[in-house]
Inverse folding.
């Protein structure tokens, strides 16, 4: 009975379902044909609700799906197929059969727009159907784990429309999706070539592909967009940009290439936004970067119009583009960095070669003006060398300025490139043997003339430049040696324009290189200050003693602490010279003065010994020459002569000599005891130099020979009241090869001391170290002063072992200090 | 007149039954109310229900018309929103056909197929988050609708239009109504049995006590039995998988099998008309064992 009833109920519903479905299906057709305005939402909802309530949800779901499948296949697909020409299907633009590109574009557009419309209408209709079938989705689909009818209908669109096959010829077919892909790819290519395409139509179709899952989900869920379009897009883009890169490198210059690449990247990013999908942005960016930048960077840099050309021609904005491109694909900018380093080293080496060539220039005809014939003397050649040295520095600075500008403007002040530039500058500067000397000469030149009339700011700039170069110098001890020597001459001969600036320079070096470096320079300045006080004090002392001698000689004394001043380069280089100088015979007036000061000084500082360096001093002499007749009657010719101390001693000899008498070279030497070299130079300056021939030499020639005779030049004439007798040793000049070897030898000696001191310091602290460790630690300790040769260090260690300061532990490789600390080594 | 031992035993059993029934009722009353009315969104909003002021939509049903507001119903119900705001509101139509004014535009929605009491409860719920279950008159019969039945009807409409909160509320109310109804039936039965015995054996004190204490015999006539209607509503108007009300009805039936099966003919008819219910009961009997 119950069973019968159950059946009966079901049978009753069966009839109900068929007729209800009829109504629903008719309404769905109306919805699809845009004729839904007469339909009643609640009626349709109620009918679907009832079917589901009567357990017919499954049947309803299947009927709706089948309805949609039929609709898509019969109406939509048929309509779309009608729009396809064979050319569009094959996707081969070669087969256009007389079609112009524009016609092809238009045909593609029509298809895209129609597909877009079909998709959008499908979505709209399905959303209306879904509204009506809400109860089925919620009750039936949820309980039976079915996708919502909407999703099912979307998948149907994919399967029935997009994946439907279109036969092109026997055994050959493409899917609608394939056609769509080819059309989009072709249009993108057209856009890349400069045509205008309908971005909105493509974007709508891309939206569709993004909204659909791929049918084959074996590799996890994937959007149709990625599987059916993106891969091909990326592949064809690779091909396109690879070809374009080749053409561009061949046909345009580097600047154009950069600008074009930048434009291409912007275009592709923009295309992802406006036409394709944001999810493709990074991938296509990578494609363009790979094909136009990463794989081409080196070619681009090496082009004729590449980086070298840009640097030479100050193409800062082009260099900036290259930098941007390289930075885009490589955070280290390896390619550009290498290229720039090569260029810097090449340009620097050119400067070095020019500098070396200039320093080889021997007395060859000087390119100076004819008016200054004095310059063609030996002193002139030295001057030329100095000019070349300064030119080297200025060239380096100019190169530095050039690359600083490139760096800040084009290289966006990039840290990595700065490091690279610094390394390259250091490389070529240190490759040049005379760099330390030249930089010191450059500073010397500026201190003596360069800063004249400059504002504080301008002086600052000069000092900063010098410091910049100094930073590159590896062997700071060589620089130290030259700088102190040059500074000494400036200070003692009063050549510095400003003591303030000198002190500024020293304090800058102190900041840059540390206290130790400038210790001696600072005490040099202290000596200068003390000397001024001594001079003033002595003057007062003499005045107080009440010696009103009108012929009194004024004394300006510089008392120099020995060891602080590098006097070896100033003629005090050997012991025998030392002896000879001690015996210099001063004229009585000067001898009195010397004694007076020595007495005064020993009262102030007992126990100190003064050594007089006559070769370092100068004297002002007021000289009266015999009256000579002239147009304005006779005039007394008085001149103030500025000569070296030796010059003064020599001239005073002739003061006491009766008019017309003469002295020969040997006479002069025996009466003064001036070393031969110095005497020759002194006599040259007062008897040979054309403008300061206060003495007459017999016979007249450029060289001074021991047989020459000298007498007072009564007919000496000069337009100037004050005359400076140029001394050959007066200026700071480039060293000759011999001097240079001497300097290097001295420097190596002091290096040896420094290395030994460092070794002993390290061993005192560490007690026990292996040979290897000791060498490397010594290298580290000395790095701020110079870069020692490893062989040199090993030799010093051997020497220390020999002298029993160090010992091998049990005959092994390890070392330990022996006995008391090596005090001797620390204070040579 | 002394009672025979058999009579004594009968009387004692009746008294026990009564005590049990009273305990059941008391337990019911002591229990804190499970019905927690939602707080009205706004007192003012509640008063707007069926208020012609600002009303822009009329919902009709079996001759009744409720004046409501699109803002309220669309924000409360997805169904109304789909109907009035989605593509259906602007359903595409061929431009040249002169279409008559549609419901969306005319502002009338006809829910004729639904029960008017349930429709009213649903609409009121939109405004007040609650509804009233007392004294509803059935439109066809004119009789008072028992709360259990009304709650079942509200549950059905809440399911149909997918209003989850209303479903939960009506389910709670339904459970309480069913249990109350069945418990009261049990109490009445027990009292009746005891009263008959008191009469039969002429125990004056007991009869007087019952008449004064429980007002028995003077009470209003019993409401017609609604068990069949409730089962029919629950088992025909909600989907099979929706166990919400079905479990409540089943549990209540099994707990009070004596009360519901008192009318053997009626109970059998209920089983016959509702095969799902019959299946549920059979399964429950197999699980629980025979009473």
């Amino acid at each position: 009975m119950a069973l019968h009833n159950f059946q009966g109920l079901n049978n009753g519903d069966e009839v109900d379902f068929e007729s209800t479905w009829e109504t629903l299906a008719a309404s769905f057709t109306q919805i699809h044909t845009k004729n839904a305005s007469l339909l009643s939402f609640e009626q349709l909802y109620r009918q679907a609700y009832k079917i589901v309530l009567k357990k017919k949800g499954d049947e309803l779901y299947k009927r709706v799906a089948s309805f949609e499948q039929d609709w898509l296949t019969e109406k939509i697909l048929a309509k779309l197929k009608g729009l396809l020409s064979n050319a569009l299907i094959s996707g081969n633009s070669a087969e256009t059969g007389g079609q112009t590109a524009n016609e092809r574009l238009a045909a593609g557009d029509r298809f895209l727009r129609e597909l877009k419309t079909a998709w959008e209408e499908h979505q709209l209709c399905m959303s209306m159907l879904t509204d009506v079938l809400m109860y089925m989705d919620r009750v039936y689909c949820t309980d039976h784990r079915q996708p919502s009818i909407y999703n099912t209908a979307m998948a149907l669109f994919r399967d029935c429309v997009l994946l439907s096959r279109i036969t092109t010829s026997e055994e050959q077919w493409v899917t609608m999706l394939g056609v769509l892909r080819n059309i989009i790819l072709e249009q993108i290519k057209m856009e890349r070539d400069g045509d205008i395409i309908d971005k909105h139509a493509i974007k709508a179709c891309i939206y569709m592909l993004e909204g659909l899952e791929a049918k084959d989900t074996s590799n996890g869920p994937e959007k149709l967009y990625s599987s059916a379009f993106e891969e091909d897009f990326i592949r064809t883009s690779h091909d396109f940009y690879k070809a374009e890169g080749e053409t561009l490198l061949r046909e345009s210059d580097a600047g154009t290439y950069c600008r074009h690449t930048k434009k291409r990247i912007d275009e592709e990013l923009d295309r992802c936004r406006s036409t394709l999908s944001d999810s493709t942005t990074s991938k296509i960016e990578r494609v363009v970067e790979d094909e136009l930048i990463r794989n081409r960077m080196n070619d681009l840099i090496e082009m004729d119009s590449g980086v070298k050309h840009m640097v030479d021609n100050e193409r800062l904005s082009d260099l900036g583009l290259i930098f941007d491109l390289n930075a885009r694909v490589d955070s280290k900018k390896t390619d550009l960095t290498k290229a720039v380093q090569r260029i810097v080293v090449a340009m620097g080496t050119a400067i070095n070669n020019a500098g070396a060539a200039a320093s080889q220039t021997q007395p060859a005809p000087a390119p100076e003006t004819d008016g200054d014939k004095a310059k063609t003397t030996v002193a002139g050649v030295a001057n030329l060398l100095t000019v070349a040295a300064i030119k080297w520095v200025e060239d380096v600075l100019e190169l530095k300025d050039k690359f600083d500008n490139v760096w800040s403007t084009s290289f966006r002040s990039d840290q990595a490139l700065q490091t690279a530039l610094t390394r390259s500058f250091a490389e070529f500067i240190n490759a040049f043997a005379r760099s330390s000397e030249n930089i010191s000469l450059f500073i010397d030149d500026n201190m003596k003339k360069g800063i004249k009339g400059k504002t504080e700011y301008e002086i600052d700039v000069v000092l900063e430049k010098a410091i910049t170069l100094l930073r590159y110098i590896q062997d700071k001890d060589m620089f130290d040696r030259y700088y102190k020597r040059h500074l000494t001459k400036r200070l003692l001969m009063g050549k510095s324009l400003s003591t303030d600036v000198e002190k500024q320079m020293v304090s800058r070096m102190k900041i840059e290189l540390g206290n130790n470096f400038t210790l001696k320079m600072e005490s040099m300045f202290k000596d200068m200050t003390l000397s001024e006080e001594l001079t003033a004090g002595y003057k007062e002392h003499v005045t107080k003693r009440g010696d009103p001698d009108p012929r009194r000689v004024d004394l300006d004394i510089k008392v120099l602490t020995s060891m602080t001043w590098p006097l070896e380069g100033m003629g005090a280089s050997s012991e025998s010279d030392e002896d000879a100088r001690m015996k210099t015979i001063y004229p009585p007036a000067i001898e009195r003065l010397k004694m007076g000061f020595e007495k005064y000084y020993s009262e102030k500082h007992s126990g100190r010994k003064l050594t007089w360096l006559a070769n370092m001093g100068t004297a002002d002499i007021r000289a009266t020459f015999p009256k000579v007749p002239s147009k304005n009657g006779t005039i007394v010719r008085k001149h103030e002569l500025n000569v070296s101390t030796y010059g003064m001693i020599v001239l005073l000899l002739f003061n006491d000599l009766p008019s017309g008498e003469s002295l020969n070279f040997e006479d002069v030497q025996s009466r003064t005891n001036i070393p031969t070299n110095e005497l020759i130079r002194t006599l040259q300056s007062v008897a040979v130099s054309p403008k300061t021939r206060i003495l007459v030499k017999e016979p007249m020639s450029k060289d001074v020979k021991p047989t020459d005779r000298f007498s007072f030049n009564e007919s000496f004439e000069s337009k100037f009241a004050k005359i400076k007798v140029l001394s050959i040793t007066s200026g700071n000049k480039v060293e000759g090869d011999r001097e240079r070897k001497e300097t290097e030898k001295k420097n190596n000696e002091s290096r040896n001391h420094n290395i030994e001191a460092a070794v002993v310091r390290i061993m005192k602290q560490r007690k026990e170290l292996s040979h290897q460790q000791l060498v490397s630690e010594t290298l580290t300790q000395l790095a701020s002063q110079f870069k020692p040769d490893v062989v040199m260090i090993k030799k010093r260690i051997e020497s220390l072992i020999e002298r029993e300061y160090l010992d091998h532990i049990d005959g092994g490789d390890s070392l330990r200090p022996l006995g008391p600390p090596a005090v001797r080594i620390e204070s040579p | 007149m002394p009672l025979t031992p058999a009579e004594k035993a009968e009387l004692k059993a009746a008294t026990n039954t009564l005590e049990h029934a009273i305990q059941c009722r008391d337990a019911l009353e002591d229990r804190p109310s499970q019905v927690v009315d939602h707080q009205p969104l706004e007192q003012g909003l509640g008063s707007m229900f069926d208020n012609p002021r600002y009303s822009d939509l009329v919902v009709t049903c079996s001759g009744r018309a409720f004046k409501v507001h699109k803002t309220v119903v669309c924000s409360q119900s997805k169904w109304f929103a789909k109907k009035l705001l989605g593509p259906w509101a602007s359903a595409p139509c061929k431009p040249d056909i002169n279409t008559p004014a549609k419901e969306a535009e005319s502002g009338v929605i006809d829910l004729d197929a639904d029960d008017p009491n349930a429709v009213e409860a649903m609409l009121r719920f939109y405004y007040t988050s609650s509804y009233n279950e007392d004294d509803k008159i059935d439109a066809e019969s004119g009789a008072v609708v028992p709360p259990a039945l009304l709650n079942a009807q509200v549950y059905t409409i809440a399911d149909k239009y997918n209003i989850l909160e209303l479903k939960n509320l009506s389910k709670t109310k339904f459970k309480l109504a069913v249990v109350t109804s069945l418990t009261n039936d049990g109490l009445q039965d027990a009292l009746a049995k005891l009263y008959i015995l008191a009469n039969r054996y002429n125990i004056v004190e007991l009869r007087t006590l019952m008449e004064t204490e429980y007002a028995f015999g003077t009470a209003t006539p019993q409401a017609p039995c609604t068990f069949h209607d409730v089962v029919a509503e629950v088992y025909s108007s909600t989907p099979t998988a929706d166990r919400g009300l079905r479990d409540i009805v089943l549990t209540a039936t099994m707990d009070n099998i004596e009360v519901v099966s008192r009318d053997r003919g009626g109970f059998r008819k209920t089983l016959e008309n509702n095969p799902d219910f019959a299946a549920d009961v059979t399964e429950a009997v197999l699980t629980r064992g025979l009473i």
User: Anything to note?
Assistant: Chain B touches chain A through 33 residues (CB under 8 Å).
